[in-house]
Structure prediction request, 254 residues.
Amino acid sequence: MPYSIKRRNVLITGGSRGLGAEIARKFAAESCNVAINYVASEAPAKELAKELEQNHNVKTIVIQGDGGVVADIQRCVQETVKAFGGLDIIIGNAGFTKFSNFKDLDALSYEDWDKCWNTNVKGNHALLKEAKPILEKNEEGGVFILTSSVAGQSLKGSSMAYSVTKAAQIHLMKCLANTQGPKIRINAVLPGLLLTDWGNLYGEERINALKEDSALKKETELGDCAEAYLDIARNSSMTGQAVQIDSGINVGHM
Prediction:
């Protein structure tokens, strides 16, 4: 039987802009209370919270915190539960990269590698670890969906550190799904090119090349990608899956 996402309590890390904000809008439209985590974009986070409250009559909370700092992650979970009285769905959308050439082994410092690891991998482990007792107490359990990337299943992406840590993130998701059931379902969405503030940093030439390389000859539509999180949350028989929403960019390289 499908899991109803109506009136759930949702925490979204990296939720103030781009894909995270669009996911927040989708869940709020289902009458969900939404906790919006941000690391630096305070104004967009507050504007989004106001938009969701006005348009959907839901509760929101805005929480500052770095997705790669364990103490901040723990506090995000704690403040969400305090504000809403519970937690049902977590979207691990915080991520980090630094655009660089794979061929240049000096392009990234080891501090950059550490930040990629901490945000893309360790932070998501800490997120589920903190939330696990809460999710397991729910009668219907809980949902954890990670935002990964097609870069985790290819030899491409914004940086080598990003590609490597996204591959590790996908493996983390599978390990967690295999060990943390039956009450917690854990999956990942792997977007392709999204023309958000972050995606536009590729520049026009690279963006056009990525579109041409994809089977559908276009970028990944933001709304289509965000909708996948709702579909996954509803599916009570699905766990351990890495779902590509990428306009066929990976099959285009096969």
Observations:
- Strands lie at 9-13, 33-38, 60-64, 89-92, 142-147, 184-191, 242-245.
